[in-house]
Q: What sequence folds into this?
């Protein structure tokens, strides 16, 4: 009997196939973004199919052999979104029982193996999620780029673009961000940058991909970029503290795992978050996650088999 775990995010999709009896991984696969709220159902399905097919080929298995699939995807908290997501799997894995979770929850389970702790994720989007000793879970953030995602790569990049425009028209201080954006896209002026964003690269994912330029500017001493990173860390800290309070963990000792491309690429962001969080929650300590999110999805899939007996 085989099970499958999927981590579907705004940048990439990763999945793993494992034997249900001992959890040994026998195949892995990867694909493009599968956050259908940002990329649409067509792109999400294509990315899922790409990742699942690669994993099945590596496992020398067929789709019909998968008994349970746990998919951690954005949008699973709302009924109408769950119904849309379920349709993506009807043809993809026809015999599998589908367990839908948020991408943040599978990351949390992978990071702590259901033990008390927090994950704070900053990638294309952002969210904080935790679990306490009673097994109660809570989250803060994760509302998407229109209403939230504070402290994410998208949020930092968007604010960096605004700072560049304010520098252009005199509403804000000079910043290296403007020059870096123009140089990166081989553009002569900010006006050309606006045209590019509206015509070719205006999706949240493309904007989020500009985050490294803000990081470069911060590392070169640009005050505007450094302020943006500090502000992003503060927003993520605020979300994490909200989760701690909701779970009544203020006086507990527990791990916090920092995940996502923004934290991975920026020791400055990690240090800033740790400094701000330590002032508010003394018992938390930052550590590496025990497993990546797709393994968290596999753990949930295996648990669902046990719970069904």
A:
């Amino acid at each position: 009997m085989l099970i499958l775990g999927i981590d579907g995010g705004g940048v990439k999709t990763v999945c793993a196939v494992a034997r249900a009896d001992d959890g040994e991984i026998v195949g892995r696969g990867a694909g493009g973004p599968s956050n259908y709220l940002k990329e649409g159902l067509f792109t999400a399905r294509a990315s899922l199919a790409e990742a699942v097919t690669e994993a099945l080929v590596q496992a020398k298995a067929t789709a019909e052999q998968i008994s349970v699939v746990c998919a951690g995807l954005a949008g699973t908290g709302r009924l109408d979104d769950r119904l849309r997501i379920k349709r993506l799997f009807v043809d993809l894995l026809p015999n599998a029982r589908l367990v839908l979770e948020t991408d943040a929850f599978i990351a949390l389970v992978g990071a702590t193996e259901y033990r008390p702790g927090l994950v704070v994720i900053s990638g294309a989007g952002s969210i904080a999620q935790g679990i306490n000793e009673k097994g109660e879970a809570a989250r803060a953030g994760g509302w998407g780029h229109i209403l939230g995602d504070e402290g994410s790569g998208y949020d930092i990049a968007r604010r960096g673009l605004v700072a560049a425009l304010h520098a252009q028209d005199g509403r804000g201080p000079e910043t290296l961000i403007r020059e870096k954006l123009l140089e990166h896209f081989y553009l002569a002026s900010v006006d050309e940058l606006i045209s590019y964003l509206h015509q070719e690269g205006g999706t949240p994912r493309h904007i989020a991909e500009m985050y490294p330029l803000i990081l470069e500017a911060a590392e070169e001493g640009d005050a505007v970029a450094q302020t943006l990173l500090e502000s992003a860390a503060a927003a993520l800290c605020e979300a994490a503290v909200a989760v701690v309070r909701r779970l009544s963990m203020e006086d507990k000792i527990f791990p916090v795992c920092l995940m996502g491309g923004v934290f991975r690429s920026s020791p400055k962001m990690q240090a800033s978050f740790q400094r701000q969080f330590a002032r508010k929650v003394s018992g938390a300590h930052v550590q590496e996650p025990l497993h990546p999110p797709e393994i968290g999805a596999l753990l949930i899939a295996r648990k669902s088999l046990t719970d069904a007996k």
Remarks:
- The longest strand covers residues 2-8.
- The chain has a mean pLDDT of 87.
